[in-house]
Amino acid sequence: RTLSNENGPRGAPWNVLCYYAEEISVRVPLQAVTTPISIWSEKILEKLHIPNIMAQDVPNLPPDYYTCQFRSNKLERFLGHENKDTFFKTTQRHQILYEILARTPYGSLKRGEVGIGRLVSEHVLTAAFPLHEGPFEMPKTPVDPQSLNMRQILHHYWARWACWRKYQPLDHIREYFGEKIALYFAWLGKTEHTFNLYQDIKHVNMFNLAGLLFDNGGTVFFSIFMSLWAVTFLEYWKRTSSILSHRWDCSEFEEIEERPRPEFTALAPMTVRNPVTGAEEPYFPETQRLSRTLTGNMVIILMIAIVLIFLIAIILYRTILSIIIYRSQNGFFIFSAGRIASLTGSMLNLLVILLLSRLYTYLAQILTRWEMHRTQTKYEDAFILKVFIFQFVNFYSSPVYIAFFKGRFVGYPGKYNTLLGIRNEDCGASGCLIELAQELLVIMVGKQVISNIQEFVLPKLKAWWHRRKLKPAPSQEVIDEPDSEPGLSPWEANYQLLVCEGLFDEYLEMVLQFGFITIFVAACPLAPLFALINNWVEVRLDAQKFVCEYRRPVVERAQDIGIWLTILKFISYLAVITNAFLIAFTSDFLPRLFYRYTTGSMRGYVNFTLSVAPANYTQSHMTCRYRGLKDDKGQPTQDYYHLLAIRLSFVIIFEHVVLLIGRIIDWMVPDIPEEVEIKVKREHYMAKEALAENQASFLETIIDGSSVFLCLLHVFPLVVPQSLSRTVLEEMVQQ
């Protein structure tokens, strides 16, 4: 009841709130920021005198303040200190109350029996959550928008499908759900807006020849564009993140303000002094953590090996299915044998990917908890890294195989290579690039469709089932008490909502999608279009879940999106190299360019790409040809080595040019805007002044009479008032 008390101020005594606010470094306002918040696209449209259809007037905009960490002895220096009921925001009260509940032991500390989270996991309690601020539905009668509660504002101006083209009210999201969730939606919104550029850049003729649709000269320039887009997007996000983290008072959260996890505090075997804060904090030896981390890495390697085993099984499945279809003597199926085997193999691969993902995520949670990371940020970073490494191999192993290995080790007529006694796979008549595009569309779009259906349908089914379980039996529906209210209490109504499962799955889905549209964009230029559509849907689905279907989560602070940014940087650099190799070795762009340069036309190009089988391979006088640049003995020709040199040169030039331009963009765009740096310095100055002025006012209050004060300064002329502690001053006055 303490955490779900909607009356707010009566949830905890004032002195308790002050103690824990100082303990967890809650930031409180010093002075209002008068500079208006601006959006770059809004400025551009205003200068061009173009109506901004994305803008909307959202009521009750949370004010922006210069802030500093709360100190009880400086209470009178903060804005709003006169009203104790409203001095701490609702979300700050939630943080304080949850901090108390999360650190209170209820049993043996050695067994980690600490905190309300463990009580819920052991089913001692059914749930612990803060309450939503009233209903999300709009009143049936017209009302002043300023009178709406924050949940109604978020639903009407953000979560509805009609708001798909509007700016997200990020400050309102932060005010209601906290910085961590607001940063996720800010990042998701930036990917949505930057994907819009794709529509203006790429126009594809959908019904051209399949080979020319994805494998043409424009693919090179589009790959360069997408690689530079990835770098530009990350630089733009770093600037946006620095602006938001300062505006939301989280720019120093990880270095100074973040406290140890309750579970770590309970199970750590010793304490040491924090070199930054000087406080005694629980400590876990790094050597023990390292040994546990190495053990966890062995599990990761084992799971990756399992993924590769399944990949080999799917390769064998495609080959065996093709053989079975060829022997069926059905003309229609024989003609499409390779396509049927490839398509069904892709679907089977998607099913295996989704099943292994759930299994490994569960294992990663156990391993990360066992490693004993100090803070929640480090815990989440370790967990995310484990899962991403596995998911990277899980999702991308099949596309990488098709892009760089399939058809490379087939051999030649009369001497074919085999795997477990079965002939190695070869690419279809249109080449491996089209097969790769098909694989990408099946995995990426298939996962998007499945995920969106799950996010749209499953919450409603879960909510219905949850309410059904909570519904009393018919014999219990009769109420004997005449004064009882027919409606549910707020905490009972909120209890019928679903538990918020965090942001990990949401981030993982978007990061994997980012990999698909950058690493393999040369093979499937349509991938960013599907990503754009998915992001439009994802923002609204996630908004509706948080506002309408989830219990209100406890506010969590965050400085940025964490290790996800490092992973995105890794993907962007890998995308440059991968696209260079795709264009050079998988597509026919360079062979066509080489043939046109050497012969002056494209006449006879198909015969150029085919080699003649050895004479002893066929018993008739018919000539048999196969794909490859080899002589009649199966050895590479001179043209093969010329083309190999061109391909390697292209990879080096492509990679260096794109990365150089990316570095120039990184150098030209500072991570922290100048106006933010000025605000940071201004805030630090104001915090320092608050401390000095408070101590000066303390001198005036504890010393009665100006003569005593002047005498004190005369007796101790070398002592600066700001350097005197409260105890020293009191002793001096008593003397």
From TrEMBL:
GO terms for biological process: calcium activated phospholipid scrambling. One of its GO terms (cellular component) is plasma membrane. The chain crosses the membrane at residues 218-237, 299-320, 340-363, 383-404, 511-533, 561-585, 640-661. Its main location: membrane. Keywords: Cell membrane, Glycoprotein, Membrane, Transmembrane, Transmembrane helix. Residues 12-170 form the Anoctamin dimerisation domain. It is found in: Cell membrane; Membrane. Residues 173-683 form the Anoctamin transmembrane domain. PANTHER family: ANOCTAMIN, ANOCTAMIN-7. Belongs to the anoctamin family. This is Anoctamin.
